[in-house]
Amino acid sequence: MASTGVSNPLPRNNGAAAVSPSNGSQQPRRVSAGKQHVAPPTLLSKLWKQSKYCLWGAIGTWYLDVPAHLEAVYLHSGFWPSHLVLLSLALLATTVTIFAYLISLPFRGIAPSYSRWSNDPILRTLVPILTLAIVGGFISLTLALSPVCAPPKNINTFVEGLSQAASAAAKSASTAGADLSSESRSLFRKLTLEFSRTFQQTASRISPPDTAVDKLQAAGASASTAAQLASLDVQSTWRRIVSSTLGGDVLDVQGLATRLGIPAGRAAELEKLLSTYSRQVDALIRGSSASSSVLLGLGSLGWIGAGLGSAATYVLVFGLMGLIGLAAPSPASTQRQRTRKQQ
């Protein structure tokens, strides 16, 4: 009995000793599984990320033709829209300036704490100003590109749009050869003048005779002119203008090429240019925002296009600032540099 009394605790002790090492061996395994090492992003991945921002922003700004729309609004939309354009550009410049200043701080041995910006003597002043500049700039730029600030469709904007279309067509013709380029440039200039005269004559016939001249000569002519001119038959007007410009009846492109002295083998190139120009003129008269806004830059992006154009502009700016910021020293290296100087 005594032997059994002594022998019974031994297995229990061995069992306890067997369990405790196993528990001790499992616990470090759980800790090691919980602490997964995350590798910091490499310089190449950072470059690619910022380059994508620049690429998408540049594509959106170019496709929506944001600079041309802002220029059209500034020149033709009146006092308040032009000043709204200036305000949006000023806030955008303020955003770029603040970002550039923050990027320059590590080069001067200053490492601001962005995670605790409210306690940092520099960031607690600049961060609210930067936030207001970004939000205010985005809203003002969107409004400047929106239909609220779009230039009125009057004779002046029609003629300017035609001039842009003629310049674009003549520029395209320059790739076809010197002979076609010189003739097409002259033709497009004549067509632009004739179309503008047709616009004025049509508006004069439709408008009341006692106020037609005053309305057409006023800088801010009524937008109803666009609706009145929408009844124009572009194709018949096109044939009449070509015939009156060159003299005689010109029924096809071959006859037009012959009249201009262009070789018969080049008539297809001329036909393509005239077709492109005709589509742009038709889009200008009809007010098609899907094509005239991109091709002619008349400030008619619509609300969705205005928001996308403003977003693309700021994405491009943020991407460029991010690329420049990659050249700045890291906060850790800046802190080590300050510590060495203090020692």
From TrEMBL:
- TM helices/strands, residue ranges: 84-105, 125-145, 311-332
Top-level lineage group: Eukaryota
* The keyword Transmembrane belongs to this UniProt entry's keyword annotation: yes
Tell me the segments the record calls region Disordered. 1-32
Q: Does the keyword Transmembrane helix apply?
A: yes
Task: Point to the regions of Polar residues compositional bias.
Answer: 1-11, 20-29
Which keywords does this Swiss-Prot/TrEMBL entry list? Answer: Membrane, Transmembrane, Transmembrane helix
Q: What is this protein called?
A: Uncharacterized protein
Native source species: Tilletia horrida
